Amino acid sequence: MAEYYLELKGVSKSFPGVKALDNVSLSVRPGTVHALMGENGAGKSTLMKCLFGIYKMDAGEVYINGQKVTINNPDEAMKMGIAMVHQELQPVLPRSVAENMYLGRFPTRNYGPLKVIDHKKMYEDTTRWLKEVGMDFDPKAPLSTLSIGQMQSIEIAKAVSHEAKVIIFDEPTSSLSEKEVDVLFRIMNDLRSRGVAMIYISHKMDEIKKISDDITIMRDGTYVGTWPAAEMTTDQIIARMVGRELTNVYPDHPCKPGEVILECRNVSSIHEKSFQDCSFKVKKGEIVGFGGLVGAQRTELMEAIFGMRGIKSGEVIINGQKVETKNPRRAMNAGEGLITEDRRGNGILGCLSIKDNVGISVYDKNLKAGFVLDHGKIGQIVSDSIDKLRIKTPNAQEAIANLSGGNQQKVIIARWLANDPDVLIMDEPTRGIDVGAKHEIYEIMVQLQQQGKAIIMISSEMAELLGMSDRIYVMCNGHIRGEITEPKDMTQEKVMHYATMF
Ligand SMILES: Nc1ncnc2c1ncn2[C@@H]1O[C@H](COP(=O)(O)OP(=O)(O)OP(=O)(O)O)[C@@H](O)[C@H]1O
Ligand SMILES: [Mg+2]
Fold first, then answer.
1. How far is the CA of 45 from the centre of ligand 1 (A)?
2. Which residue range is the domain that position 388 belongs to?
3. DSSP assignment string, 345-401
4. What is the CATH number of the domain that holds 27?
5. What residues line ligand 1, using a CB cutoff of 6 Å?
6. What is the pTM of this model?
7. Interval 305-351: pLDDT, tens
8. Which atom of ligand 1 is nearest to the CA of 203?
9. Which of 148, 244, 280, 464 has its CA 20 to 30 A from that of 79?
10. Alpha carbon nearest to ligand 1 atom 8, residue
């Protein structure tokens, strides 16, 4: 076998107005996990899509096991033993788990002169592959009944079921729980021992350190270099990714809290298994963190406060006024904003431009003569946010669907900032976002806090929770189990103590 099972040489790719890849190379050894790192928009997904035949490269060569090959479409890529777990999932929600696994390659059997789908085999094989990756869903269950994390696990099972020699993982863990990540890493270790070459894209440093053998770094569509993972510190990785030193990721945020702006009193869900009897307060000029394990019902609680879910009992009070919690519009008018966790599912208007995706939140505040959109003003707000959040795009007219994953998220954040809420709820605000951009988002949070706005931040990243919160509530199993107010008590142990009080 060749030293490198997969080699990409001199790959270039342009889109109108963007040179996404400029002479990029990548060589992956068999039986290794090769991390591909770079800031949002660096070109990682584009490089993988060129390899997988989704995009046609403008220049460049691909070698598999020393042989030069041409890959024109994903079908050919799969026939050559390449599988890909995509950053943006494309599940067919009303269909079953098994149908999603075998879409486009249903097993068939002969029925007289006809070929029909062999459902029995499909269900059996699905169960077998799911078991292989440590899961036991009903293969007949509609996909819509699963969580995003579970859907992602199915994508992973699908890639494994192709028995591929090269597997591309493009941010597979962004919506997985810690337990699901452990399962994925176990599978990857297993694949490694079977000689599979894996490419792993993630913005989570601790994962990269844990799983990868080699690291290739890209910056602005160019190749920076490749190093053995064990020889690089996190700081070195970051410096090479962003091209500058980045010390103090979490900016200072001196907190001078004002009066209470949001209060929840004994809020309970209409669903017994969801949040129950939650009471908490948030003051002006505070960043309040919500910690807890995946499944603690933090997202559900915040969505309910924003009017997206039913509340059986309890009150939500903003600025001294009781808010009708049945309707997000009322919550917005009362001064709430919510940046959702599932930004791809709930946030993005895929076919519209960046301008429309940001502007939509401020249309009713920027009218001329009361009914004509003031495009000049809206355009200004939008271009300010593109600058402020450093959204990588040729211009504001670009369709949001054409942006890199992380930049799409920045657009959604820009939308809520433009609406200027008094209480901003941010659910996992930096998931899928690179370190440089994370720092920018933290700085924006601090700016808002200093202006006297209140911020609620749900975060599953311990360092972020401890680094950014002025005060922390910890949830477990639908209940608020603890409140941490003193800086000296803000420790991982304390958070975990409350987070596991089932
Ligand atoms: N279909 C497309 N049309 C136009 N531009 C595109 C298209 N796909 C990607 N781009 C641009 O190419 C550049 C690289 O994007 P890519 O998705 O490869 O980034 P990435 O490294 O995967 O980032 P992230 O970490 O945010 O996922 C970006 O500037 C993006 O806007
Ligand atoms: Mg990407």
1. 7
2. 348-419
3. III--TTSBHHHHHHTTTGGGSEETTTEE-HHHHHHHHHHHHHHTT---S-TTSBGG
4. 3.40.50.300
5. 15, 18, 20, 38, 40-46, 87, 392-393, 402-407, 434
6. 0.72
7. 999 898 999 999 999 999 887 888 888 888 999 988 776 666 778 78
8. 25
9. 148
10. 402
